[in-house]
Design brief:
Blueprint: E1 3-6, E2 11-14, E3 22-27, H1 38-56, E4 60-67, H2 83-91, H3 95-112, E5 120-123, H4 128-140, E6 144-147, E7 150-153, H5 168-178, E8 192-196, E9 216-217, H6 219-231, E10 235-241, H7 245-260, E11 265-271, E12 274-276, E13 279-280, H8 291-296, H9 301-309, E14 317-318, H10 321-339, H11 351-366, H12 371-383, H13 388-402, H14 406-426, H15 435-452, H16 456-468, E15 471-476, E16 479-484
Parallel strand pairs: 3-4, 3-10, 4-5, 10-11, 12-14
Antiparallel strand pairs: 1-2, 6-7, 7-8, 8-9, 12-13, 15-16
The chain binds zinc ion.
Length: 485
């Protein structure tokens, strides 16, 4: 039974979709004005695990993501600079050029991290009519009002507006810092803009006609409208980073439920921040940590994915190069161990052993996506008292969710090792001039020849004979080395 923490109820609950066997999943997408930093990508990696695991346990998942390519302000309230406009100015490009470029960058980063592309990816600029429709209904129902040229959502009309206010302290503090000026048009402090016609930005590029004048949508209306457009009136699960919980998700709930007249989303999944030593990771503070930067420094992006999986999504994680180095070493070792598994077509998978290994894996993910225990299940499979075919089958299955590319990386490594071994074998052996060392080298070659001929008794005899003389052999992928005691 799959159990997940629901931020709305603040409990770990059995996950029950509205319609049996089907899951509608919505993910807040990126604002495409710059590269994503690896802290943003941690959220997408964890959401990807949820997506893949739901499929693994048999659900037909439809996942939808928006792309914010219009009017997202630097503060989650209605203040601050327009992020898209800021990006366009910085790079002397049009807003749409910026959006197209950074959308591609985002999905290329996702591909490197093995994050599955959602089934529907919808740019906000494609849905202006949908936003206008939802806003019109909110006005008709009396949940919205016009003031000073803008359309606002009236939060006082709701019995309960502050859904995720337990997350407020940190995020409100940010809002307060950024949102210096208040908006006199608002009837209540928490009211938010649905449609702007009075832009503070003279050079606002993207504007559309609406019943309330030429303008552009607020940010929050995007996600409500796009979700309802593709996933209908009942949403099973909505995901996002914890910094989106308030006010963004709170406002999404306000709009959607006021529009629909009933409960909208059953389960909310929020991923905690990635921190650095100096606090929450951001684009403006410290080194701008991107996937490309990690690659430039020689890291495999999948080592970063493993780093993320080693920690639970509901805990903040701390990034440091030391931590990433540890993950990179673990990743290499893991690949080497998978590469060492024999590929013997005649070997049968032991279904009972596989089922036992599978239980450890599903138990881990069933309990609120415990990814670090799911990674442990990989190691358990490698150590298990069963044949290599069964181990490979378990790893293939688990990695369909964890997506660390283990079998592919292992096959690449095995091919490399074979090449090296072949090169070493075809090279002319130059023996040492020291007769004692030459004798050892000849014995090592004789042992290698015995092993190649599957005469393991002879190979072991040679190893024992050398050991008796204080010569200890170590087998490495590129050949056998020795040490004299
Ligand atoms: Zn959203």
């Amino acid at each position: 039974m799959f159990r997940l923490y629901n931020s709305a109820s603040r409990k770990v609950e059995e996950f029950v979709p509205f319609e049996a066997g089907k899951v509608g999943m919505y993910t807040c997408g990126p604002t495409v004005y710059h590269f994503a930093h690896i802290g943003n990508l941690r959220t997408y990696i964890m959401e990807d695990i949820l997506d893949r695991y739901l499929r693994y346990i048999g659900y037909a998942v439809k996942r939808v993501m928006n792309i914010t390519d219009v009017g997202h302000l630097t503060s989650d309230g209605d203040t601050g600079e327009d992020k898209m406009l800021k990006g366009a100015k910085r790079e002397h490009k049009s807003v749409m050029e910026i959006a197209a470029y950074y959308t591609d960058c985002f999905f290329s980063d996702c591909a490197k991290l093995h994050i599955r592309r959602p089934d529907v990816v919808e740019p906000a600029t494609h849905c202006i009519d949908d936003f206008i429709h939802v806003i019109s209904v909110l006005l008709e129902k009396g949940y919205a009002y016009a003031a000073g040229g803008n359309i606002y959502f009236d939060t006082s009309r709701l019995d309960r507006y502050y859904v995720f206010n337990d997350f407020r302290t940190d995020d409100l503090a940010v809002g307060v810092r950024e949102g210096v000026e208040g908006d006199d048009n608002k009837r209540n402090k928490a009211d938010f803009v649905l449609w702007f016609t009075k832009s503070k930005f003279e050079d606002q590029e993207l504007k559309w006609d609406s019943p309330w004048g030429v303008g552009y949508p607020g940010w929050h209306i995007e996600c409500s409208s796009i979700s309802m457009k593709h996933l209908g009136e009942h949403l099973d699960i909505h995901c996002g980073g914890i910094d989106n919980a308030f006010p963004h998700h709170t406002n999404e709930i306000a709009q959607s439920e006021a529009y629909l007249g009933h409960k909208w989303c059953n389960c909310w999944m929020h991923v905690l921040h990635l921190n650095t030593d100096s606090g929450k990771m951001s684009k403006s503070k410290g080194e701008f940590l991107t996937v490309s930067l990690l690659e430039e420094k020689g890291y495999d992006p999948l080592a970063y994915r493993l780093f993320c999986l080693q920690s639970h999504y509901r805990r903040p994680q701390t990034f440091s190069y030391e931590n990433l180095d540890n993950a990179a070493v673990s990743y290499k070792k893991l690949v080497a161990r998978v590469a060492a598994l024999k590929k013997d077509a005649a070997e049968r998978v032991d279904e009972n052993a596989l089922a036992a290994l599978r239980t450890a894996f599903t138990d881990a993910l069933d309990s609120d996506l415990n990814t670090s225990l799911a990674v442990t299940a990989l190691y358990t499979a490698l150590k298990a008292d069963t044949n290599d075919a069964t181990k490979r089958a378990a790893i293939a299955e688990f990695d369909s969710v964890l997506s660390l590319g283990l079998l592919e990386a292992a096959d690449r490594l095995a091919a490399e090792n074979e090449k090296k071994a072949a090169a070493a074998a075809s090279a002319v052996r130059v023996y040492s001039e020291d007769p004692e060392i030459r004798a050892i080298e000849e014995a090592i070659d004789a042992r290698a020849a015995a092993k190649k001929a599957k005469n393991y008794a002879e190979a072991d005899r040679i190893r024992a004979e050398l050991a008796a003389k204080g010569v200890i052999l170590t087998d490495t992928p590129s050949g056998t080395t020795f040490e004299r005691k």
